[in-house]
What we know:
The complex is a heterodimer of chains A (549) and B (172).
Chain A: E1 29-32, H1 36-47, E2 52-55, H2 66-74, E3 94-95, H3 132-136, H4 146-160, E4 163-164, E5 180-181, H5 187-199, E6 204-205, H6 240-248, E7 252-254, E8 259-264, E9 269-275, E10 281-285, E11 288-291, H7 294-304, E12 329-330, E13 332-336, E14 351-353, E15 367-371, H8 379-383, H9 390-400, E16 404-411, E17 420-428, E18 434-439, H10 444-464, E19 467-472, E20 510-512, H11 527-543
Parallel strand pairs in A: 1-2, 1-11, 2-7, 3-18, 4-5, 11-20
Antiparallel strand pairs in A: 6-14, 8-9, 9-10, 12-16, 13-16, 13-19, 14-15, 15-16, 17-18
Chain B: H1 5-14, H2 35-49, H3 57-68, H4 72-93, H5 102-111, H6 125-142, H7 145-151
Helix pairs in contact in B: 1-3, 1-6, 2-3, 2-5, 2-6, 4-5, 4-6
Protein name (chain B): Gluconate 2-dehydrogenase subunit 3 family protein
InterPro entries (chain B): Gluconate_2DH_su3, TAT_signal
Keywords (chain A): FAD, Flavoprotein, Oxidoreductase
Amino acid sequence: MSWDRAPAGSAESGADDDADRTPVANADVCVIGAGPAGGIVADRLAEAGREVVILEAGPRFDPDDRLARQERAIRPAYDRPDVWDGDPERDAYESTGERPYPLNHARARGVGGSTLHWQGMVMRLHEDDFDSASVRGVGADWPIDYADLRPYYAAAERELGVAGAADNPFAPPREHPHPMPAFPPSYSDSLFAAACDELEIAMHSVPNARNSEGYDGRSACVGYGTCQPVCPSGAKYDATVHVERAERKGATVIDRAPVQRLVHGPDAIEAAVYATPDGDRHRQSADAFVIACGGVETPRLLLLSESSHYPDGLANSSGLVGRYFMDHLFAGTGGVLDEPTRQNHVGFLTSESHQFYDEADAEQAPFKLEFFNYDGPSPVELALTGDDWGDDLLARLRSDYGTHIGMGGLVEQLPREDSYVGLDPSTTDDHGNPVPEIHWSVGDRVLETIERVNEIQERILDELGAEITWQVGPEGTGPAYHHMGTTRMGDDPTASVVGPDLRTHDLENCWIASSSVFPTGGAMNPTLTIAALALKAADHVLETELPIR
Amino acid sequence: MELTRRDAVAALSALGLGGTLAGCVAPPGSEPVDTDRLRETLVAAAAVVYPSEVSGIEPFVAAFLEGRLADPTHVAGLEEAVAELDGNARVWYDAEFAALSVADREQVLRNVGADDADEDPSGMASERVRYYVVNDLLLALYASPTGGELVGLENPQGHAGGIGTYQRGPNA
């Protein structure tokens, strides 16, 4: 017999304390962060023959532990950050805004980044999302248009492996089918469909970065139902795919190597100083640097790297590093029917509606509607709580499971200068650095739009004949865990941090590949756009003559 | 509803304990483990915490335990939890937990506080019994196809039951 996996309590990072974590000599490019952006950039640059080193603050996880992590996801003894070995000291932060921001529920740190725990929904932004100021009269215009990003979107869909269909009449134009067919609609989708037909609300498929058939050497989805926060089968894309592919092409990954600061002159970065588990500090030099640490750690690293040249933080001549922190806000409504709804068989969505998205203007934010396949309790999770067992427990499970039905929605938050990621010098992390301060402020437009989303959701559920039992409205709303906007992209160096080529205005050898460059967020899950921009950033690095030190 | 070999394999898989269910494995720790005592205690506890319409408990629990034995940390926690149950049973009934009637076993589980404790593998005795005995058994059952079907869900969370069932209606 072969017992080759550890139970929940024994899942370990797989990190090797004795691994060689010394700098790579003669590196062409240093990529900071091993999430989807960093992984894709590293893969592209390694493919082109560049000597690439990736510095990742978190560990490399053992793929054999994924089922044990799934057990953590199900058992109440483990909090969500425990699934991917969250470390309260390493990951310390302060939330100071008008709304609390649960940062460590919103990210996973390690090789793969937050795609380790993401849902896996991958839509393209709509054309108007790139021209919000011009078309909607609010927000900012991107310095690029949908047409500029369109080929990168197509490439990103191939890179991630997207299962989708051409049945969404509201989606922006596309040239090729998705790489895989969409997942078929669920039984509960069919219940919604009757009500939506009556109300003339169109439903369509959801593009998923999840294999509906074998793709790229990974299996088709086998239905574990714990997509968020862990897919044991590997059918859901995560960035270990690209990090490992980059390694096969010669890139070097140094894990558990948090970058402490970027050493620089007035025009270029010279080295990344990183810490290792043995307490040493190392200095990784390179000709070019790509910062790919997400919407929180990217601005934090720049702010930590202040100097006499950049007293307010590196690449921060505009004063906007950390400003315009955005997320998508959730709106939801659910209830119960007097018939089975067949929830919690899978952990992903199969139907949405983008019908109302392009009604957006100065008063109404863009939003999308989601039709849940996992509303109400999961019986196995329910069974592990409560003070009953035996027949009483089974009776409770049968009573509480089976008739729930619900809807969600994501709503755009406008960029606001008073919503920011800064440094809190009163609290330090495990290396003595000030922790990130999340000051999240959302504004009225998004809250008023949430009311509109709730109204539509109520109409659909009323048409279904559901008894509404819960609603997340403007008071109870929270973030969708999409960190955006903190190093915004623009043409004007006084009003943005990076240019349309993703290079910082201030430093000639520093690019940023992250949702932090989004000038506005739209209401689509951001990872496909992150991937598209990462591919674009890689092209710009390659077209730049190096070395430039 | 009978628990089957398929359920045992599914439970092991859901818990990250892939195996063939053949043979017997001793944990790699240096201390010998009385696996018979652990198995008898878990089977006895399952008779309390599993619903009465479930049959085939003994081979299901035995197979599930066999997977758990691969991890010395888990075994140590389970041994402590079993000792806690046996200790309480001896005080109140002058016998080990597995030798008691089902009603007396239930009372022992309540005596140690496992009924209203939150599971915690490193917590108080009540929380450890809840984690290593009560909830481990419930997790194995309700993440299995038969456990799911008891509730009306053929593909419960944790079971790789494919992507067919979510598309089917209740009468399919």
